[in-house]
Every structure is written in C-alpha cells, then in structure tokens.
C-alpha cells in the first residue's frame, strides 16, 4: 500500500490515515531499552501490544477518559486521531522500581505512601530527562490548565488500571502515559495518546512477584514473549482453551473418577 510514513519510532510506525485528522499506528516487534542502547525483538509483541492497548483505551473511554483511539484495523495496526503530542512523558508510580530506585536509593518493591507523578521531557538526544512542573511552565511545553487536566486524568487512569490488573492477579507498579492536543479550530483539548502496553508498564504477578513486562527484556530475564502473552491471556484477549476442550477434559476426568 502506498501511504505516507509520518514518523518511525522505536516500537511503532505512524502512517497517514485514510481521512484527514487520522493516523495509523503500526506496532513493531522491535524492543529497545536504556535510551535505545539495547536493541532486540520480542516475537509477536506488536500484535499483542496492539490488542492490549486497544483494550485498555476502550475501557478508559468507557469511564470518560478522552483518548485518541478510533478502532483497530488489523493485527498490527490501529486508527487513531491525529493530535499534537505534548512533549512530556508522564510517569505514574505506585511501587518503587526502575529509575526511581536508582535516583533516590529506594528499595525496589517498596510501596509508595501515595501515587507519585513524575514528568520527563521527551527528547531522545537528552535521554528524556526528569523535569519539574516549573520547567514545563518556564519553557511553555504545556499550559497550567493542560497540566491540571493531565494530572487529573493520570490519577484516574491509574485508579482504573490498578483495579483492572488487580482483578487478574497483577500488581500495577508504574507506567508511562503520553497526552496530545486535539484541535477543534483554534480551541484544543487534552486527550490520552500513544499506547498502554507491557512496553510502558511494570506489571508484577501478585503472588510470585514475577515480572510480566519489558523488564524481562531490559534485564535479560528471558521469557518476554510468554510474559506479554500471559498479560493478554489474563485480560481475556487470547483465545482460551475452547469450551469444547474444557468439556472434553471434564468428560475424561469424570470417566477416570468412576
Ligand atoms: N517508561 C517508558 N518509556 C520511557 C521511560 C519509562 O515506557 O521512555 C515506563 C517504564 O516502562 C516504566 C515506567 O515508565 O513502567 C517508569 O520507568 P522508569 O522511570 O523507572 O525508567 P526505566 O527504569 O525504564 O529507565
């Protein structure tokens, strides 16, 4: 298909969408870590992230969070609304992990007394440095009103996602969000953009503390494909054993028990 590539990032490619104001997000299997110093692929990741992100964005919009998601197009692509990305990564933390543990010497796994919001300036060359709200105001990356909307949405998203994952035995440790401006003439409003997937979340099994996210790749733990699949499976996004199989198994067990 002859469509215009708008941007190629580390894990996604953006193409011009079929109608004005839309974009196609293509999910790759490529994985990077440590500001792209470590590169690799996780087989099938793009397909799973496309599906998980669709699921999370759909459920968030059901509770009134405005998002860029329009619809999934195929295994690796989804149609989204074109926005102007706010150049800030919003990190939401419930439990200490990753850069927070390194920066402040807090032990990994320490539950934070309340949810912590952090902001990083989106700039690969600078390695996405941590910034304060004062920097955001000083350099005009977002207005105070926009930051209020962003913080309020991030907290609601965290509450919803923490519950959604807890229900399937997963602890939501931390995650990254990106927001964009959706324009309506001169007026713009903030909506959730990018993706939500195990690439940008830390997800630990509640019973075993096993990591079910990109840390498996970052730390060479292995089993990253299986971990991503497990998250999708628990969310009910992969075909389970068919009912017929389950019935079959029960039939066998009943026969054996006789
Ligand atoms: N994160 C992300 N993209 C980034 C930085 C962080 O998706 O560029 C996610 C990361 O997966 C984790 C959370 O944000 O779930 C917090 O990441 P942290 O600041 O601890 O950085 P890291 O340890 O990944 O360097």
Mind explaining what this structure looks like?
This protein has helices at residues 45-62, 98-104, 133-138, 144-166, 215-218, 224-234, 243-257; strands at 5-8, 12-16, 22-27, 30-33, 38-41, 69-74, 77-81, 84-85, 88-95, 111-121, 130-131, 170-184, 187-193, 201-205. It is of the alpha+beta class. Strands 8, 9, 10, 11, 12, 13 and 14 form a seven-stranded antiparallel beta sheet that branches. A hairpin with a 2-residue loop joins strand 6 (69-74) and strand 7 (77-81). Helix 1 (45-62) runs parallel beside helix 6 (224-234). The radius of gyration is 20 Å and the shape is globular. The N and C termini lie far apart (60 Å). The mean pLDDT is 94. The structure holds uridine-5'-diphosphate. Uridine-5'-diphosphate is lined by residues 89, 91, 97-100, 128, 174-176, 200-202, 214.
Topology of helices and strands:
Layout: E1 5-8, E2 12-16, E3 22-27, E4 30-33, E5 38-41, H1 45-62, E6 69-74, E7 77-81, E8 84-85, E9 88-95, H2 98-104, E10 111-121, E11 130-131, H3 133-138, H4 144-166, E12 170-184, E13 187-193, E14 201-205, H5 215-218, H6 224-234, H7 243-257
Antiparallel strand pairs: 1-2, 2-3, 3-7, 4-5, 6-7, 8-12, 9-10, 9-12, 10-11, 12-13, 12-14
This protein binds uridine-5'-diphosphate.
Q: List how many beta strands DSSP finds.
A: 14
Percentage of residues in DSSP E strands? 25-35%
Sequence of secondary-structure elements: EEEEEHEEEEHEEHHEEEHHH
- Pairing-aware structural class of the strands and helices? alpha+beta
Biggest sheet, open or closed, and with what strands and sense?
Answer: 7 strands, antiparallel
Please work out how many helical segments DSSP would assign.
Answer: 7
Report the end-to-end length measured between terminal Cα atoms.
60 Å
Radius of gyration: 20 Å
The overall average pLDDT, rounded, is 94
Q: Quick one: overall form?
A: globular
Bound small molecules, by name, code or SMILES, are: uridine-5'-diphosphate
Q: Which consecutive residue ranges, at least 5 long each, have pLDDT under 50?
A: none
Q: Work out the helicity level.
A: 25-40%
């Amino acid at each position: 298909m002859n469509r215009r590539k708008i941007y190629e990032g580390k894990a996604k490619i953006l193409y011009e969408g079929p109608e004005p104001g839309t974009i196609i997000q293509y999910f790759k299997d490529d994985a990077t870590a440590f500001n792209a110093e470590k590169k690799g692929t996780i087989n099938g990741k793009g397909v799973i992230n496309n599906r998980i992100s669709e699921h999370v964005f759909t459920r968030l919009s059901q509770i009134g969070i405005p998002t860029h998601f329009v619809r999934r197009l195929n295994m690796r692509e989804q149609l989204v609304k074109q926005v102007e990305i706010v150049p800030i990564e919003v990190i939401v933390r419930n439990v200490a992990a990753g850069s927070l543990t390194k920066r402040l010497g807090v032990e990994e796994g320490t539950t934070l007394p309340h949810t912590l919001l952090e902001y990083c300036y989106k700039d690969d060359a600078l390695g996405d440095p941590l910034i304060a709200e004062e920097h955001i105001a000083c350099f005009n990356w977002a207005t105070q009103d926009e930051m209020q909307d962003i913080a309020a949405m991030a907290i609601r998203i965290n509450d919803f996602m923490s519950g959604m994952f807890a229900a399937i035995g997963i602890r939501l440790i931390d995650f990254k969000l990106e927001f964009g401006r959706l324009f309506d003439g001169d007026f713009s409003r903030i909506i959730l953009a990018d993706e939500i997937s195990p690439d940008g979340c830390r997800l630990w099994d509640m019973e075993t503390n096993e990591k079910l996210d990109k840390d498996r790749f970052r730390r060479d733990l292995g089993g990253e494909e299986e971990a991503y699949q497990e998250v999708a499976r628990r969310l009910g996004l992969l075909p389970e054993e068919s009912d017929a199989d389950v019935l079959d198994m029960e039939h066998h067990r009943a026969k054996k028990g006789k």
